[in-house]
Amino acid sequence: MVTAETSQPVTDPTRIGLTKEALKQAFVDNLFYIQGRFRDVATANDIYMAAAFTVRDRLLARWLKSAQHFKESGARTLCYLSAEYLLGPHLINNLINLGILETAREAGEELGLDLGEILATEEEPGLGNGGLGRLAACFMDSLATGQIPAIGYGIRYEFGIFDQAIENGWQVEKSDTWLKNGNPWEIPRPKITFPVRYFGHTEPYQDEQGRLRIRWIPGLVVEGVAHDTPILGYGVANANLLRLWKAQATESFDFQAFSTGDYYRAVQAKIEAETISKVLYPNDEPAVGKELRLKQQYFFVSCSIQDMVRLHLATVGPLDTFADKFVAQLNDTHPALAVAELMRILLDEHGLAWEPAWDITHRTFAFTNHTLLPEALETWPIELFERLLPRLLEIIYEINRRFLDEVRVRYLADEARIARLSLIAEGETRRVRMAHLAAVGSFAINGVAALHTDLLKTTVMRDFHELWPDRFHNVTNGVSPRRFIVVSNRRLARLLTSVCGNEDWMRDLTALRRLESLAEDQGFHEDWRRVKLAAKDQLARWLAAKTGVRIDPQTLFDVQAKRIHEYKRQHLNLLHIVGLYQRIKQDAQFRPPPRTFLFGGKAAPSYAMAKLIIKLINAVAEVVNGDPQVNGHIRVVFVPDFNVTTGQLLYPAADLSEQISLAGKEASGTGNMKFAMNGALTIGTLDGANIEIRDAVGPENFFLFGLTEAEVRQRQADGYRPSDIYHGDPELATIIDLIDSGLFAHGDKTLFRPLTENLLRHDPFMVLADFRAYVSCQTLIDEVFQDSARWTRMSILNVARIGHFSSDRAIREYGERIWKVEPVPIQV
Ligand SMILES: [N-]=[N+]=N[C@]1([C@H](N)O)O[C@H](CO)[C@@H](O)[C@H](O)[C@H]1O
User: Fold this and answer.
1) What is the rounded average pLDDT of the residues 319-346?
2) Where does the record place a coiled coil (predicted)?
3) What whole-number distance in Å separates Cα of residue 770 and Cα of residue 735?
4) Fewer Cβ atoms within 10 Å of its own Cβ: the N or the C terminal residue of the chain?
5) Do residues 323 and 231 share a domain?
């Protein structure tokens, strides 16, 4: 007889079985019992949901087992606090991580279903902007695969990053209704809710022990409700937790207001509260100074820290061992308020004295900086803090007072240094420096690539590095080989497995080194080229279906896919294309190998220059693709709505990966790793992780150009005059004049003027300074591409030597150097 005690649902094969029959039975059950559909009337979404629930059930077993074991073992747990998670589609990733992709395909076929169609139905959760958000997702995958107990905390945005449509060459943002059909991968936890306070004032009081305490009388309280998504590791039974918070009103309906007929006020609190987790701010770098953004940051930080304290009290006990149980990584400054929030909870809710509270706090947090761009370093006006988070501001003032006392002693009242280090930026509007709060409140600070970390130590965080050199670490980014090879490029994965004789490389990417022995093998070259051509063909078919644009897989696929930003220099790429176009038209002898230029990337809606660059890409495409004189030689395509799903098509199909940022600007880059992992060769500057990729794959297998970071600094110090370069380079001048001429704007000479004027007057990212070197490098690439044996050899060696750039390695380094966490294997 089934009793609550005895029934062990995790053993029931129809719920957890991985066999074809078990999957088929579960699918049929779910279609009926969850979707309430007979097969013949089921929609594509019903089919997808039934498949998703079938796979989810197999995750749940591993997840609950993991959670139970972590709890019982009191394992030290890593908490990743990130405002963004760019997870990508779940179903395919979970089928791979469960090792049942082929079984599921066969089960589907026997039920008359096409797994490819089911996979294409899933709407990806776009809860991030770009590299930072995707890095968080890769890290969650590697934490589970590395069997490290971890919780990812973030915000369950109702609307993620906008869907990008291109209308008349312009980006048009469409709201991202990823939840419209429901989300089978999450489990709402209505009982795991926390109050989040805003506004109001604070007042001192004496507690029953006569100690002076502070209470915060908020003007508004909203609730955060947990929504849990299991994150299963690859080839292991470990599954970690991604806990995203949704905001709701404490009272979702005001009956008094309703009965007086004030229907809006009846639901006002509900609307206001829900606005907090309504939408992701679509800015990849520039800090967003909006009050709602600060509300969002405090919302998820407060829920997450309250949850960590609850878990600790429930599973371990008194809070003095909190920092032994938990270590929390701050993914940039977006969650930096966590430092002050943990202090608030320890002081105000648990009555700890300042020193023990600070000791716990400081031993709990570590901070990752992801950018040096001044406009991206978050600071908030004191006035806003006073109004919105009065208690947090008091605590920040006290943290600062004690910190500056320490600095004053150390540097004998060096007022200039104190002002530079202070958490408060004095000036017209006094502001809180969030990077300083994160740095003072953390025991470790890291950059995301070697050059970036060095620059962090010598520029933006120089004073902190002089103060605490031992706190600084470098952990170069990495990406998940499961998502970006096994899921994205199954043909390559099969070839790699056949070379390696097993699938161990999927968990240890350095195993691909053995490919080196095949770098000269002509037979293997053919296999290698076949895999690349198939991926290019797949992209061409998808693009034709999606946009009607036809591209030839036999041409060199030159891809630049990343957020649109002037420092990433999509416009440098465009200058080269316009130059090519002009030469092909004017010089019948000049016939470089045919190339297809593919661009992809979203621009922040408020970033006018980035949107103009998208327009110019499409305008150049219209003219070039429409010109019979150059047809068959060059083609330009803007791939709309670049996200994880389209990335999974672009990374495997690229021959050439464009990583052309101005040296010193791209902290790391992660697209560079994904392209190289799929056999693309890189044209790039000595910037971010490009440097380490070039060192790893060998300078002879990397197309380098451009000023180094030191040369950039020197040229700027010497006074950089872009117009001199314009006047000194006739071809460049012709190109800029062509863009100015209205050729790409149906005669309108003004449309692209802002761009050309900016290049000639300021050129802040030194596009003109690197132009000539870039064009020469592209000419070299044309030569090398025509030697397919050489190109293929270089491509093989890129993959053979890319192992270091797995997020598994990055997580291992964080674990050993910063978090001091041990793997806890789970048996199922
Ligand atoms: N914010 N931020 N920073 C970035 C990216 N834009 O998201 O973080 C990424 C992840 O660390 C870096 O690779 C990239 O260089 C950097 O610009």
Assistant:
1) 98
2) none
3) 15
4) N
5) yes
